[in-house]
Write a structure and sequence with these properties.
With 160 residues, the chain is an alpha+beta fold. It folds into 2 domains: 30 residues; 107 residues, Immunoglobulin-like (Sandwich). 22% of the residues lie in helices and 36% in strands. The strands form 2 sheets. A 3-stranded antiparallel β-sheet has the order 1-2-5, with no helix packed on it. The chain has a 3-stranded antiparallel β-sheet with strand order 4-3-6. A hairpin with a 5-residue loop joins strand 1 and strand 2. The longest helix is centred in the first third of the chain and has 25 residues. It is elongated and about 105 Å long. 9% of the residues are buried.
């Protein structure tokens, strides 16, 4: 009888139900997917291509004129800076797209905003040789530290 008491008790086998295993795998796959999508969303977009040789040569044929800057308050009590002007095509090619970089500076000469915006596009209509077309560029995201001066405007893209 003493032998019966000293015998080791049987160990119960722990079993995990198959439903719990499948649920765990699905949760891990979901977390991995969310992690991947979060990382992909935080990755900066690739920089736009630089001007081609033909476009760089054609920049001299573009003329910006009557450029004015106004600031006003929007309906949502937000400051909106608006740049208006005209672009002229003094060259001999029809332009499908012209984009410019507007670079805003602070009083110390540091860049506070650089935004690439179209002034001619397929949606707005092409720019034929000899044509003069008005443009309007509204900016509602200019930081308070901006120096209140006209931003630098640089031709960033031209598509023929």
């Amino acid at each position: 009888m003493a032998a019966d008491r000293t015998a080791t008790p049987e160990k119960k086998r722990v079993t995990i139900p198959p439903v719990a295993i499948v649920a765990g795998v699905v949760v891990l796959a979901g977390l991995a997917g969310l992690w991947y999508l979060d990382r992909a969303a935080k990755r900066p977009p690739p920089p736009p291509p630089p001007l081609t040789g033909a476009a760089r040569a054609y920049v001299r044929s573009l003329k910006l004129g009557d450029v004015e800057m106004k600031a006003h308050e929007s309906y949502f009590k937000q400051s909106v800076v608006e740049i208006t002007g005209k672009i002229g095509n003094a060259g001999d090619r029809v332009l499908q797209k012209v984009e410019i970089n507007c670079i805003f500076y602070d009083p110390y000469g540091q860049v506070v905003l650089k935004e690439r915006v179209p002034i001619v596009s397929r949606k707005m209509g092409s720019l034929s040789p000899g044509e003069l077309k008005p443009f309007r560029l509204p900016f509602d995201n200019v930081p308070e530290s901006w120096n209140q001066m006209m931003p630098q405007m640089v031709i960033a893209a031209i598509d023929f």
